[in-house]
TrEMBL record:
Pfam families: Pyr_redox_2, Rubredoxin_C
Homology family: Belongs to the FAD-dependent oxidoreductase family.
Protein name: FAD-dependent oxidoreductase
Residue span, FAD/NAD(P)-binding domain: 5-280
Domain NADH-rubredoxin oxidoreductase C-terminal: 316-383
Organism: Massilia agilis
Cofactor dependency: FAD
UniProt keyword terms in alphabetical order: FAD, Flavoprotein
């Protein structure tokens, strides 16, 4: 009899690990997958284009039910695991189903952070995390009206853009004084704000949400200064939190997330974890590239194929918010002894800032013209000496090569 692998979480991280495992050891396990949502695995990154109407739900499906059947995988969709019994090596689903495991893979992802202000549980207040949230947003948009998006990061701006394209009047509330402050510096954030305002999206910076007002449904958002903004829909996009309740209840060691070693094993050697629910050497993860690396390492270990180790790499973010191209990589803050190279072309709507440290490229922020982003990212990863190119580096690869 083959050993049993149970995967908790039918999202991108868990299924990518299963894909990698099937490549190297297709017959190693009897695989059972539990997912909270009632369908196959889809590309969560593409929820925004579904909201804006550029893509359909069919377009973003990665694995339909047929794929699971073809690979002999048992899928329980819409039946989330509610308890792990490590002593008996079983998982217990919401339906009462109990399944035994020899190896367990936790890929529980993250949940939207719902700002705990009065009124946060009213109807019409949602996160932006899954297809159910998109359905709610589309239903609200079909009625027109006003939407308030809390959070001016990537997800919040994508939600705002999609709702505006669907005909709603949209206000974005962001608590700091610059949009997308995790990925962009202040100048790029200011350019982005201007571009979004031209598209009819209202943006309030330094805006602290105090309460959501309404009897049964949300009707307005009240700010700390006492002002109110009417709202038929409130979208919370103020970040996510690793989804670790199941692991914590099973007494697996967690800090901010489920702590794993370089092989993606938890403190229980039969239990692995990948994706947004994990913490590796103090870091947590939200981008696809590191999660794909984790999937490869985890699959190799599940297959017993050698001793791969997960090594964190610098990450790059290429973003497209409402037709504005953005790229961010490496250390965009800089520190003592670092210097900035900056190019601004207001007419063309282009801004570039490179952070140099010790003759090497440490970080890059590009707005409007991002074609050299991957090249800059390679230079950051390789820790290449760029001293000889310093004077032409801002103008891109072609000129540096010449």
């Amino acid at each position: 009899m083959k050993p049993a692998l149970v995967v908790v979480g039918n999202g991108m991280a868990g299924m990518r690990t299963v894909e990698e495992l099937l490549k190297i050891a297709p017959d190693a396990y009897d695989i059972t997958v539990f997912g909270a949502e009632p369908h196959g695995n889809y590309n969560r990154i593409l929820l925004s284009p579904v909201l804006s109407g550029e893509k359909t739900v069919d377009d973003i499906m990665l694995h339909r039910r047929e794929w699971y059947r073809q690979h002999g995988i048992t899928l329980f969709a819409g039946d989330p695991v509610v308890r792990i019994d490590r002593g008996n090596r079983t998982v217990h689903a919401a339906s009462g189903l109990v399944v035994r495991y020899d190896r367990l893979l936790l890929a529980t992802g993250s949940t939207p952070f719902i700002v705990p202000v009065p009124g946060h549980a009213l109807e019409g207040v949602i996160g932006f995390r899954d297809l159910g949230d998109v359905d709610t947003m589309l239903a609200a948009a079909s009625q027109g009206g006003q939407a308030v998006v809390i959070g001016g990061g990537l997800l919040g701006l994508e939600a705002a853009s999609g709702l505006a394209r669907r005909g709603m009047q949209v206000t974005v509330l962001h608590v700091t004084d610059s949009l997308m402050n995790q990925q962009l510096d202040r100048q790029a954030g200011a350019l982005l704000k201007t571009a979004l305002e031209r598209k009819g999206i209202r943006i309030l910076l330094g805006a602290q949400t105090a309460a959501i007002v309404g009897e049964e449904r949300a009707q307005a958002v009240r700010l700390a200064d006492g002002s109110e903004i009417a709202a038929d829909l409130v979208v919370m996009a103020a970040g996510v939190r690793p989804n670790i309740g199941l692991a914590r209840d099973a007494r697996l060691y967690c800090e901010r997330a489920i702590v794993v070693d370089d092989t993606m094993q938890t403190y229980d050697p039969r239990i692995y974890a990948v994706g947004e629910c994990v913490q590796h050497r103090r870091a947590t993860f939200g981008l696809v590239a590191p999660i794909w690396d984790q999937a490869r390492v985890c699959a190799a270990h599940l297959a017993g194929a050698g001793h791969r180790r997960y090594v964190q790499q610098p990450t790059a973010t290429r973003l497209k918010v409402t037709g504005v191209e953005l790229f961010s990589a490496g250390d965009i803050v800089g520190g003592e002894g670092s210097e900035d190279l900056v190019l601004r072309d207001r007419g063309a709507g282009v801004y570039k800032r490179l952070v140099l440290s010790g003759g090497r490229l440490a970080g890059a922020v590009l707005y409007g013209d991002v074609q050299d982003g991957p090249w800059y990212f390679d230079l950051i990863q390789q820790r290449a000496d760029v001293s000889s190119m310093r004077d032409t580096l801002l103008f891109g690869r072609a000129l540096c090569a010449a």
